[in-house]
TrEMBL record:
<keyword id="KW-0732">Signal</keyword>
<protein>
    <submittedName>
        <fullName>Conserved hypothetical membrane protein</fullName>
    </submittedName>
</protein>
<feature type="signal peptide">
    <location>
        <begin position="1"/>
        <end position="21"/>
    </location>
</feature>
Length: 179
């Protein structure tokens, strides 16, 4: 009985260890983005699935002839649940998947506050957006990455709601141990 228990523990440990190594996505990574400053943390949840939290700054500018020009830099918080659907195909073709280089579909939740961090352009309302997005992300050897994503979702302010385009483009550097 004692040997059976030891074998069961070893078998379970082996399966757990192999399951951890079979992920196509990185266990975790941090990205610093541009052109507007952004920081993103991405954590593996499964073989091809990750969760992300991103703090981004958004920019607004308003001006006209005969009036003052106002600007604002706003905080934006974004969360995503991503499924990278082409990782196995990329591996079969000998392509890079390090830094989660692949195409994904995701559910996006984004919140932009109406109060600027810097500047004097006050938005009339904060905005909450949610919806599906399609994206692609490529990370290169020294950590440089780019990401493009887009979709159609629903946005809500205090007084109004409706369909909205959910678009994002980012370049920057990814940090963390990569494949």
């Amino acid at each position: 009985m004692k040997n059976t228990g030891i074998l069961l523990v070893l078998f379970t440990f082996t399966i757990f260890t192999n399951a951890q190594n079979q992920n196509n996505v990185e266990d975790h990574q941090v990205q610093l983005g541009l052109p507007m400053p952004a920081i993103l943390y991405e954590k593996a949840l499964g073989r091809n699935t990750t969760a992300t939290m991103e703090f981004v700054t958004g920019f607004g500018l308003r001006g006209c002839s005969g009036c003052d020009t106002d600007f604002g830099i706003y905080p934006v918080l974004r969360g995503q649940l991503r499924y990278y659907y082409n990782m196995d195909r990329r591996l079969d073709k000998g392509k890079n998947i390090s830094g989660n280089s692949g195409n994904y579909i995701a559910i996006l939740l984004a919140y932009q506050d109406k109060n600027p961090l810097i500047g004097n352009l006050m938005l009339s309302e904060s905005v909450l957006g949610v919806g599906p997005v399609y994206g692609l992300q490529r990370t290169y050897r020294r950590g440089f990455f780019y990401r493009l994503e887009g979709g159609v979702g629903y946005s809500q302010t205090q007084d109004d709601g409706g369909f909205a385009l959910l678009l994002a483009a980012r370049v920057g550097w990814a940090f963390g141990k990569r494949r």
